[in-house]
Design a protein that fits this description.
Length: about 475
Amino acid sequence: MRNMVIYICLIPFLLSGCGSFLQTEYIPPEVTIPKSWNSTGNSTSEISLSAAKWAESFEDASLTKLVKLVLERNNDLAAAGFRVRQAQLQAGLAYNDMLPQLSGAVGGVNTKYFDKSGFANSYVGGFNISYEADLWGKLSRTRDAAMWEAVASNEDRMSTALSLVGTTMKLYWSIAYSNVRIDLCRSNIQSSEKTLKRILAQQRYGSASKLEVNKAKQELTIQQAKYYSYMQKRQENISSLTILFDLPPGKIMADPKNLIRSTLPVIPAGLPVELLSRRPDLRAAESRLRKLLANTDAAKASFYPTLSLTGSLGGSSAELANMLDNPFAALASGIAFPFLNLYKLELNLDQSTAEYDEAVVSFKQTLYEAMKEVGDSLSNRKNLADKCKYLMENLEAARKVENIYEVRYRSGSGTFKDWMDAQDTRRTAEESLAENVYAQLLNYVNLYQALGGNPDQYNPVKKGNPA
């Protein structure tokens, strides 16, 4: 009896490792990549790559606090965490299939004899163990596939967090941009009202025409319409930001008033392409490549026979306490020949291979698109910064020109139209500068997302099998 139990328990260890020869070595897809991207800038101080630390590089305490809070309260991120847990549990179930399956039962029967001799009780109990020997590695590859999916799900969660931080920062600055435009509209409305009053006064004395009055009214109504347009955009952005925090629309989580920053984060020059290895979406895609490769190996192993072993240990007795006084044991085995259904197996293998080949092509395209995103963001960053210098000079010149035309008009040597045109030019210059600063902030977010986080600190990701 003891030898039987020991033999059954040792079976998994005696047969383990027999299927490793069917495991295909993972080879990363071949892609053509540059060594680095060029960007103007100097190295900056060390900054953490975590999502919350990422926001600190903008030196805005309100923004940093907001990002930390949204990572704690966002529903999409919480749902992603639950999906990770589900994938981990599924991987645990796949691993459990490789272990011996134990079951046990106990039962009793009460018998009454018709010859009035009385009653009799009998008890039966036993334990069963079943095990499918993983001779060709099918179960191991199925387990690996589930584990790689769990790894990919965790990367999906990291990608959700990265996207969430980016969305929060963009909405934060969208609110600030709306507030800047609202302030400009208010200033322009006040200026237009003063101009209209002056023109109306001049009309009463016959020194201003109806055309000039209507022109002044038109400028005022344009600024008033813009004001309400940006008020609506501000409210929409505030509501969009609020619902990220598991709150209904109505509460104001942030209301920044200004876009201007003393300095913008510096991007180091010569960023290595290896930075892309930090992008969670690319890591998730590669993990799913490994998953599909494991599925293909499992499909190959399905062509080979499977060996199933079943053992049982039990006993019976008229007394429950002595149930195992009369033990019995049995060991059975069975071999299944799946190649008898060869056509279906070939279809399954072809399907797994096609899915893997498709994933390879998709991964390469995703990587190229990621490289394009980084390149475009770096190029746009430089162009926006260069453009900002000229916009600032343009605004300064536009203000001077407006003052000159105002003095000329009041002195009678200039026309009302020239003065109005100069005002329009100055307003356009103010709006263009605000738009440029806003675009620069959005560009930094896009660049950081394309790189998988802040590039000031780079730790290469070590690749290997999932633990």
